């Protein structure tokens, strides 16, 4: 049974409480199932609901999103409309009303589609502990005594996103593809592609990126990138798909994502 539930008024206070042990609680969609089932012994929860981490700021092509911002609110933000397909592909409306941006960074694959998108955006994450603050890349390890406070990313010039699921709504990923591109004069100058559902964590498709750069964003380039997308992946079996199937359909969805196909 839970013995302590804390509601700190700041991230610094939350970090101080975390030094004494316990689990951070954002929206609860990851933590509470473990608490309710007793899968992991938890006697202290530290809620970030009142810690002042629910702000969203977009200026000069850069976005700053607080870790406690819900997925639903992120999806409603007009200046971040490109992320709506990402948000709407995650779980169900009741879950999105609770789940947070910071919490999604810790969702295990084949969940965590926002984390895949943030990896493609080259996002940076501010974390805080009693020892001070630091900034890391999305995907870098967060220490047990650190609180994620803010996620920073630039708005993409060209954005592509595709998620293959068993059902149209409320399903985990078979393959997720997110790509941020810079295209000038029809030629790809920069490319960052992230994949979900094909490894234990979201991964960069570095070989696919290189296959695009310096080429027109056309069918031939998309097929070249798709053919290279397997490099660095480690598909797995689960209740949603087999490793064989994930590997089989990965290039199909990379090609479709890059070409903006439905």
From TrEMBL:
The keyword Oxidoreductase appears for this protein: yes
GO molecular function, one term: oxidoreductase activity
Superkingdom of origin organism: Bacteria
Domain FAD-binding PCMH-type: 1-158
Record keywords: FAD, Flavoprotein, Oxidoreductase
Pfam families hit by this protein: CO_deh_flav_C, FAD_binding_5
Name of the protein in question: CO/xanthine dehydrogenase FAD-binding subunit
Organism whose genome encodes this protein: Actinophytocola algeriensis
